[in-house]
Amino acid sequence: MNHPNLRRRVALLAGAALITTALVAPPGSAAPGIDAPSSSRFTFAPGRYVVTLADKPLATYQGGVTGLKATKPAAGRKVEVNSTSGKAYRAYLTGKHAQVAAKVGAHVDHDYSTTLNGFAASLTSKQVNELTKTPGVMAVVPDQLHVLLDDRNPTDFLKLSGQTGVWNKLGGTATAGQGVVVGVVDTGIWPESASLSGPKLGTEPPTDADPYRPYLSGSTTVMQKADGSTFTGSCEAGQDFTADLCNTKLISAKYFGDGWLSLVPPDRRADYESPRDGEGHGTHTATTAAGRADVDVVLGGRDLGTVTGVAPAAKIAVYKALWSGKATQDSGGLTSDIVAAIDQAVADGVDVINYSVGSIFESPATDPIQLAFLSAASAGVFVSAAGGNSGPDASTLDNTSPWVTTVGATTVAPWSGTVVLGNGQKYSGVSTTVTSPTGSKPLVNGAAVKKEGVSDADALICLANTLDPGKTAGKIVACDRGISARVDKSAEVQRAGGVGMVLLNLFDQDVVGDSHVVPTVHLNAPGSLSVKSYASQADATAELVPGNQTSSTTPYPQMADFSSRGPSLSSNGNLLKPDLAAPGVNVLAAVAPPTNGGQNYAFLSGTSMAAPHVAGLAALYLSKHPDWSPMAVKSALMTTAGNVLTSTGAVNTNPFDAGAGEVQPSKMLDPGLVYDSSDTDWLGYLEGTGVKTGTGVPAINPSDYNAPSIAVGQLLGTQTITRRVTAVTPGLYRATASVPGMKAVVTPSILSFSKAGQTKTFTVKLTLDTADSGTTTNGWLTWQGADKTVRSPIVVVPTSVLAPTAVTGTGASGSTSFTATVGKAGVPIRSYGVVSAPLVPGAVPAGAADADLPAYPVTVTAQTKAVQWNIKTVDPAGSIWLVLYKVVNGQMQFLSFVGDGSNQASASLAGPTPGVWGVLAITLSNPPGASTTEYTMQTNVVTSSTGSSLKVTPSVAPAAFKPFPVTASWSGLATGQRSTGFVEFPNRAGTVVTIN
Question: Coil, strand, or helix at residue 844?
């Protein structure tokens, strides 16, 4: 199975309905699942809100208000918030904020004017309701809590170091990234870190020999930048943080916590009311992006060599907006504080923003944070954002707006350790804590050394306070991965006197080099399962040894299992996300010692760690090309990206994992062509997705947004996509495009550029050929010329028909009708079935282990048209769910949860691809007084030779791209149980017909 703990996931799904009804419904929408009388009004929860107004903020205002000049910066320049026109327009905006708030009797808590035109305020339900109807108000959204996302040296793996590395090409680490400021919106900074050390800020202006040296003008830090503009910041004093802690590396540090501090009382806080990092996350991301070069690191007695930030000569400006509470639910950052931080970062003049933060659900492009990033990008600021840590499930990404660079996480060469068993077998895994051989020790699993009264299940995963010190002392404990944090398991082993731990993946999953408190090796399946089996034997022994002592090696880069995947839901699959991938597993960087076991450095994993690699690469780029736009830099990174691998070493062909692929800094500075975009493109994209921007910019098909990738979420028959490219290196370029099962034609297929900066437009026509309808297919568009290769991923979901996937009907005889639209006239329409299989009794108890859940597999062949599973509890008071899965590489890959908590559920497959598909039966609670949930299961498999009771008209599609009625009819059916049929269109598309 590819995911344990199904009961927990079903419980979360069941609870989602409750969460949804508690969310504030925007004007003109209803919370799902609530049937309100037509005369009712929406009820808005009182609380803190962010109100967005229609006028443009400073970063994008191009004039139009009488007497107020434009404040949008020219290309390659940053917004001048302290100019006369900037101050005047800011006063105009804040004045309107006060007017709007006053109309409903509210008070403005915080104004936003640089990247977002709006304000934060505490509002009553009535005030929210009135504001949603106020002219000039675009959105009123709750102040949401956002949470942190968590070659062995990534900078070596990325070929930044070495004689032929990128740093040398840019003049060495002393100049790589110079003249650029990286803004980090995160948990703050630990200024004493060696990776942040530098000379103190002086008051002398820079010289021609050192033009980018920051200096103090009063209490303001001033720095002339590579793009000709000026950064102005400050070191904000606060709890355990004084202004003199900033220096010529850490040039500014500010904190934003009005929202969080008002929400979380002092007795629930575990942080500093200052820029100081109370968690370590912000320090890690900042030093990954732009930490000082060649800092020696010793961790747990192990010499780990030196670490260097990706852009070691860039400067760091910190904007603390994420906070730590004593409880997990109190930790994170509120929308209002994060927007305030972004607003200030752009006003100060940063060149790059790193944002290693995400939400539980994908943020729409109209979210205040995403709109703030739109204005930041419009002002010339490159935004690198973590894609999320909710993988490997599909559609789990966040930060997917087109003006943001969304980053997935990959592996690098692992820090290795080996488990040597007493039977002579050796298994290599990841370890950063085995610095010398442990010697042979007894090897046990958690259940063998558990405390009295503790369940085997809890002890096997080494939950806190489950192991008996009298049984554990002196032993190496094999702990299953799952439920608790990985480092908490080793802490439990240490507490009970264990001398080492083997962390076991129970299925193919990523392995992580955490900073464990006892020597630990993290093993993947199938080797982990062999060790688990051996550990259950009497007198089992093991030794933990540094390095890989086996002949097997681990391919890299691979996608991290936790890295969130696409497709993006907010774009309906018409914008490929993530954009690219970067190292995010076992990344060594500085942290805050008090919350990291007293260590100054730590290995952390997450897309949080991947995003600052890309932020650092953008800083390197803008140091060399300070006049480039953020999207030109993004294009260069994407079109020069390389392949990501699978665990077998094969190329990972799923674009929803890594987007364009793994960043390749050695190629990024010479991309040949770039796909650029700016305000008009972004606003046209928003209009195309149904967002009314009020700007007068015409809508474009979202697939036509000028991204360095092509995505079509639903292609009916054929579609032509438009792109434009700008030459970095002039010359003749020839296009090739290939997408399996599709015909791809590029027009023109040859582009000639006579000079750099010249822009030309082309189209790509995609037509459904042999690809299965409704199944994603992907390939590449490649331009080659001038000794350059410019590669863009293409991902398409083709369909031969737009029709419902399922319809229902009743009676022994009858019919049901639906509307269909095909992409080609004259294609056949056929019917199959019906099938009504016998009911099979079964039972599942609440709390059953995943491995004990009843499974109902079906082997699908080329002749299989449809499959339907129908389950119903015997007791009407029962509750039942189905988990749909497909077997991939011998393991169950869970696809969806089906059910609503009632006593029946039904899962259907229309035109499934060959292979083994199935469902698991699962319940969260048994009927009253019962120890198990009894049910009946029916599995209806419709094939090309099962029955002829179902008839369909018409038998041929009358026209293309025009809706027409389709009628399925039947007769002579038994009404006592369910029957299933199938109406088939070309390319395995069709509609499941459920009768009775």
Answer: strand
CA dihedral 20, 21, 23, 26 (to 10 degrees): 100
Q: What is the 3-state secondary structure (H, E, C) of 855-912?
A: EEEEEECCCEEEEEEEEEECCCCCCCEEEEEEEECCEEEEEEEECCCCCEEEEEEECC
Whole-number Cα distances in Å, 796 to 268, 397, 567, 710, 716: 48, 18, 11, 8, 10
What is the rounded distance in angstroms from the CA atom of residue 552 to the CA atom of residue 547?
Answer: 12
Instruction: Find residue 523's DSSP bridge partners.
Output: 504
Tokens representing 762 are 């082309």
Q: Which of 111, 186, 343, 351 is catalytic?
A: 186
Q: Which tokens belong to 446?
A: 């958690």
Q: Which of 110, 281, 284, 613 is catalytic?
A: 281
Structure tokens at 736: 């090739």
Query: Confidence band (pLDDT; 50, 70, 90) for 37?
Result: very low
Q: Which residue has the tokens 């090409």?
A: 169
Is residue 119 within 8 Å of 308, Cβ to Cβ? Answer: no
Please give the full DSSP string across 515-563, using - where no structure is assigned. Answer: --SS-EEEE-TTHHHHHHHHHTSTT-EEEEEES--SS----SSBB-TTS
Dmax over CA atoms of the chain, in Å, equals: 95
Q: What phi, psi does 270 have (nearest 5°)?
A: -135, 55
> Is residue 608 annotated as part of the catalytic site, yes or no?
yes
Mean pLDDT of 761-788: 95
Q: Cβ contacts of residue 91 below 8 Å, gap of 6+? A: none
Per this entry, what is the length of the chain?
996
> Model's pTM, two decimal places?
0.83
∠ CA 731-735-738, rounded to 5°: 160
DSSP letter (8 states) at residue 171: T
Going by C-alpha positions, the residue among 812, 773, 814 that lies closest to residue 796 is: 773
Give percent of the chain above pLDDT 70: 95
Known catalytic membership, residue 227? no
- Angle, CA of 526, 395 and 609, to the nearest 5°: 70
pLDDT (tens digit per residue) in 83-115:
999 999 999 999 999 999 999 999 999 999 999
Q: Cα–Cα distance between 193 and 600 in angstroms, integer?
A: 7
First vs last C-alpha separation in the chain: 34
- The token duo for 995 is 């009768």
pLDDT tens for 317-348 read: 999 999 999 998 899 999 999 999 999 999 99
Kindly state the tokens that stand for 804. Answer: 């419902």
Give the residue from 957, 955, 951, 952 showing the smallest Cα distance to 827.
957
Q: Two tokens at 387? A: 């894609």
- Rg of the chain's alpha carbons, rounded to an integer? 30
Could you tell me the sign of the dihedral formed by the alpha carbons of 616, 622, 625, 628, in that order? positive
Checking 755-758 for CB contacts under 8 A at 24+ apart, the result is 755/727, 755/730, 756/727, 756/728, 756/729, 756/730, 757/726, 757/727, 758/726, 758/727, 758/730
Query: Can you name the residues that pair with 222 across neighbouring β-strands?
Result: 215, 232
3-state secondary structure (DSSP) of residue 981: strand
Instruction: Reply yes or no on whether 516 is catalytic.
Output: no
Selection from 283, 405, 279 nearest residue 353 by Cα: 405
CA distance 862 to 475: 53
Mean confidence (pLDDT) of the chain: 90
In this model, does residue 79 exceed pLDDT 90? Answer: no
Question: What tokens appear for 465 in the block?
Answer: 């306070």
Single-letter residue type at 923: T
Quote the CA–CA distance of 982 and 831 in Å, as a whole number.
Answer: 6
Question: Quick check: helix, strand or coil at residue 431?
Answer: coil
In tens, the pLDDT along 930-955 reads: 999 999 999 999 999 887 789 999 99
pLDDT score at 76: 67
Cβ atoms of residues 521 and 544 within 8 Å = yes
Q: Given the residues 113, 416, 608, 908, select the one marked as catalytic.
A: 608
